[in-house]
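Worked example 3 (structure in, sequence out).
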């Protein structure tokens, strides 16, 4: 008993290329192996069992391939939806920033421009806080290598050693995950002083 070279299910497996993503149909899932003959021949039974196992393996591989493609598609759709939500929240801030730039070109008073930019900055910080993005606490806190990146140490007796004395660049958290570490200046005791 010889096996056919191409079973209907072998076309359901698609490589990683740019082939169209189609899921296996029910017609392709039907076993293509005829039931074993009742002639008692152990070789024929073994070949029939091997053909049955191969068919089951091909169907399982096709099912897994379809699952993988569906999961990848759903993940990409979720990412796009997340970006769209964030963009909807940030667009009003961007609109106000454009208005501020336009009005600053003709504004006679610098203080009015500064006040406008300060309001936009507060709006931006509020928008980030609403979506769960917060600034890393820095100045006055104890240096934490998990959220701070020390770029300089300053000898001082005004602050205890290991205290953040200045922020060079703010850091941000997305929930409990670090997005960017804060670049900070850290206090160290003056030469000749003990902790």
């Amino acid at each position: 008993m010889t096996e056919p070279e191409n079973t209907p299910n072998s076309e359901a497996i698609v490589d990683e290329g740019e082939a169209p993503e189609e899921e296996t149909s029910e017609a392709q899932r039907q076993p293509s192996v005829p039931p074993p003959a009742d002639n008692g021949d152990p070789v024929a039974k073994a070949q029939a069992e091997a053909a049955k196992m191969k068919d089951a393996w091909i169907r399982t591989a096709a099912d897994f391939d379809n699952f993988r493609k569906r999961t990848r598609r759903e993940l990409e759709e979720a990412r796009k939806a997340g970006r769209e939500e964030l963009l909807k929240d940030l667009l009003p801030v961007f609109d106000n920033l454009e208005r501020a730039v336009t009005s600053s070109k003709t504004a006679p008073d610098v203080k009015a421009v500064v006040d406008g930019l300060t309001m936009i900055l507060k709006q931006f910080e509020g928008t980030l806080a609403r979506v769960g993005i917060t600034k890393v606490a820095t100045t006055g806190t104890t240096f934490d290598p998990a959220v701070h990146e020390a770029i300089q140490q300053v000898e001082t007796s005004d602050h205890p050693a290991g205290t953040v004395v200045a922020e060079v660049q703010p850091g941000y958290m997305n929930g409990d995950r670090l997005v960017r570490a804060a670049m900070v200046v850290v206090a160290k005791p003056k030469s000749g002083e003990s902790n």
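Notes: Strands lie at 133-135, 148-155, 164-169, 172-174, 177-180, 182-188. Residues 8-75 form one domain.
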